[in-house]
Amino acid sequence: MKADLTRLQILSAVGRHGSMAAAADELRYTSSAISQQISKLESELGVELVERHARGVRLTEAGRAVVVRARAIDEQLDGMKDDLRELAGGFTGTVRFGVFPTFAASLLPDVVIGLRETHPGIRLSVHSSRIAPLQELLETRQLDLALTWDYPWNRTVDEGLTVREILSDSTVLIVRRDHELAHADTVELSDLSNDDWIVRAGGHPTAEHLWRCAHTAGFRPTVAVEASDYQETQAMVAAGLGVTLCPQLATSYVRGEVVVKRLAASVPPRRICTARPSDVKPSVASLRLEGLLHKVVKGYNLSQG
Predict the structure, then answer these.
(1) How far apart are CA 288 and CA 284, in angstroms?
(2) What is the pTM assigned to this prediction?
(3) What is the CATH number of domain 93-168+270-304?
(4) Per-residue b/e over 70-96, b at no fewer than 16 CB within 10 Å?
(5) 11-21, pLDDT tens digit by residue?
(6) Residue 257 — pLDDT band, cuts 50, 70, 90?
(7) For the domain with range 171-263, which CATH number is right: 1.25.40.10, 3.40.190.10, 3.60.140.10, 3.30.1780.10?
(8) Beta bridge partners of 176
(9) Where are the domains of the chain?
(10) CA 245/CA 238 separation, integer angstroms
(11) For the chain, how are helix, strand and coil distributed in percent, rounded to 5?
């Protein structure tokens, strides 16, 4: 059984008015056109829908049952139109957002809270992972937007992604509070040529960052410990096993036994960027999220100034 939606709406109008002429006036049809459409609907459904009498028409029991369903359909259609308007305006929708762990542990809560306050209808589906898996999820269109990071020597180059920098994340030094450089304003990397070093394990880019910067500073670092994350590296520094470099964003939580020191400009920052598939038109909701990211990052920069 198949019923034309327009004919269902015509039947609803006839039922409201009890007159084909009045329904025709409302819908801007001729009376004969209304009559023809009702006849076609009766043929589609295989039942009589209206009874004609001297003063007009009235719905049969079957006609009344159909109108009840038709009105429910109209309400659903109106709701659908409202949903589409909300989506088009960026007030609702789901954004699949990829982040890396140091951002998730530091600034992501501000992003989530800000989004709930400004656009409570937007749902954020967050996936936290390392950079390579995030890029793969972007390339397979499983993420709408993700954050990536790189250094000058390993810039992200992917024609399939649109990449925009949002934050320059300084490289900092972490030493024990009793280290001889703990009270220095700014530290040159060459001042640490005789120290033991704690680095991220598994070929992490920050380890290569240390090797490259140390080579520029004229020494080869002695690695004492390879750690799995930044909290572990802090614990190793606190235990007196060495010193470490890390991005400033990874120092949102600092152990009491260590201090964070600024490094000279010869140690470059990492670049944090938004990335999205180039061949997919971004939703308004994802653009609103990207705007909020810029706002949160700006606040973070001001707090670090």
Answers:
(1) 6
(2) 0.70
(3) 3.40.190.10
(4) beeeeeeeeeeeeeeebbeebbbbebb
(5) 888 888 888 88
(6) very high
(7) 3.40.190.10
(8) 258
(9) 5-88, 93-168+270-304, 171-263
(10) 14
(11) 45, 25, 30
